[in-house]
Every structure is written in structure tokens, then in C-alpha cells.
Write a structure and sequence with these properties.
disordered N terminus, about 425 residues, mainly beta, Immunoglobulin-like, Jelly Rolls, five-stranded antiparallel sheet
Length: about 425
Amino acid sequence: MKHFALLLSLAFTLGLNAQINPPFDFETEETTPVLTNFEMAETLVVENPDASGINTSANVAQMVRYPGGNVWAGSIVTLPGYLDLTEVGAFRMKVYSPVAGAVMKLKLEGNGVIELDALTTVENAWETLVWDFTGIPGGIYNQVAFMLDFGTEGDGTYFSTFYFDDVELYQSTLGLQQVSLPIDHEDESVHYQTTSFAGNYSELVVDPMDADNHVMKVTKHWQSLNYSGTTMSTPAGLAVPIPFESGATEVSVDVWVPTAGAAIRLKAEEAFQPANSVETQQNVAVAGEWTTMTFDFYQNVPGTQSLNFSFDYNILSIFFDFGNEGYLSGIQDFYYDNVVFNGNSASISEAEAKGPWLYPSSVSLGSFLNVAANASSFERFRIFSTSGQVVHDTWIRGNTRIGLSGLTSGVYICQLGNDRRVTQKITIAQ
């Protein structure tokens, strides 16, 4: 196996004038972006050091991180326009690393900043890594920063030399429904992709305690920060906000931890509105077995925001061993499953207390829904697609007919209420 790179013309990498969008495969000038280096990292187009396995292309990008740079050294690409990642929002690229366990960070910049990490699993071989930003609307990000081996200072040697290739955007959902509570990881029609940050990495796996069960495994890296966590969805959030109301403020989660006493924090917030959030925390008492923990968001962590029933909490994140950095205990694996909102069916809405509040549950295109709302005040009525997009939003009072002429066939989720909300699925057929 070769561990060298034949440098191509420097002008091939840096002499391009036009900005381009992904995919980038570094084979021609038309498919090679302008790369701007920072903090003593240098990225060039070179000969593939190992044209085998999943990557037999001739040319790839080589990043060398030299002494004197910071741990966030890398290279950045400015795109010709702003990304719209609402539907097609996942990046994937092939990576060749001298070590397994290296942190590969992709950071989007522009009118905001968001970053995701992936972890190499092999050394001296090509592998494909994924960063899923699905759900981010356009007009925010027009730059992509590549920070390979993030968190480690470069020394310019073989161990600070990384290769990447075939950078592309793709649709990760593949027609699957956006996740919503309850989450049991068993529905093959649901997109269970999560979003980890600050040194966490998550993947859907078979339950190590039960071969017939699927769970989410969260790995806390030794470089993780004290607030490393995992959002239980893509950045788009849950398909339907958590319907918190007076008397219904609890979420239960099954957890498995390697060490008893660790703090577990849950945080609910509005997508792209991080100031609208609420956090609650408990310590897990049992290690090495599954434990059901119930978190009451009415009991918020001191110093954090209180629960606000007017907010649409559609982002739910879990933080394992909150408050401790990864180096204190090394790499650890945690698991969670069966995330359930403990609603209070006795305190929903006046309409539901009297009987069905929405009917029929199966309708045809161009027909109507009948909604039984509160007769004494206006209530908000919304229809969500299974990807979480609001496709109908109005205020109604009393019994109301809702036209469906602007929708297409498929499954939708209806929600009625202000502080107290009820939800129901409907199916629109051809």
C-alpha cells in the first residue's frame, strides 16, 4: 500500500475562478472547488494514495495539518448560492484516514453557523461518512468548512495527512416519514436519523440486551465537551411538536448507561429558535441494565427557561453524563429507546371530551374535514406533512369544515389547540 501523494499542478487547485456546487470529485477543473485554507491546514488535489475498495478514482483532495495551527484547522469552500437543505440535506463523502476514531467535522457558515461530526472507523482504507443537515431552509448557509481530525493539533506528518473525495448532497429520507413521538425505533417507514453534537456520535443498532429490539446507540468520544448531546431527529425536528399542556409535561425514556449516577438531561426547543427551550435533568440510579426514566419539563433546571405552552417544542435532545467532558472517562457507549410523551387524556380540549374532534380520518382529494373546536374562543388548527412541514395553518371557532383542495394524497397529522393540543393522523386518498 502506498502512503504518498504525487502533487498535481498547484494551479489546478487554487487557480479556479468559478464557484461551484457539489458534487466535488476533484477529477477536473469543473468538479474541483476553490479551497481556502485556515490555521495551517493545506488542501491540494493529489493522486489517490490507495485506488482500491470503494474509491478507485485517479485524483482526490489531500489535507495536511501543519504545526502552529489550531485544533480546528481546515479548508473552506464558498458556494455560488445559499444551500436549501429542506429535502435534500445530507452530505456524504469518502474519507481516507491514517487512524480510526478521528473526528471529521463539517461546518456550514454564512448567515449562521451549524456543524456536525462523523467518526472514522478504519485506518488506511476508504470509507463513506455522512453528515445529515436535512430540514435546513435556504438563505442561511453558503459555505462548507472541512475540518478533518478536529480537536487534534497537526504536526505535518503522515498522522496529520488525510484524504477526501466525492463530496455530494443526497436525500437521506428516501421517502420515509419524519420521526415524531413516541419513538420506538421499530417502524420501517420512519426516518430515525439523529443529530449529534459536541463530541457525540449516534447510530441505530440492535439492542445488545435483546436481539429482537432496535435502539439508538450514543457514543461519547474522549474529546467530547461537557454539553455533548444527541437530538432525536434531523435539524428539521419532530414531525409534530410535543403537545405539552397543563398537567401533561412529562416525557419518559428507556436508557442504558455504563456507570450509575451519571446526569441525564433532556432539552426541548423550537427548531431554529434555540432561545425557546426548556431543560430538565435527573441522575440515573442503575448501570448495566435498561431503566425507564420520567422527565418532567415543568421542573426545569435552575437557570434555564421555564416551560412555555405557547412554544412549538419540536426539537428533543438527550445529554448523557451531562457536565463532564469526555476525557474524564474515555470513550463510553450509552443507549436510549422508547421515548414517550406522557399526555393527560383527561385534560385535552372541550371538543374531544364531548366526542371525536376530527372526522373522517380517511378522505379523498378535494374533499373536506370536519373539525369540532371550542365554541367560545378561537383555536389554532394545523396540518403537518409527515416530514414536519406545515401545509395548513388557520384559526377556527366552533364546528368548522376544512377544505383539502391544496393537498396531495398521503398521510398527514392534524393538530388542534392553543395551550392544550390534540393530534390525529388522517389519510388523503386519490
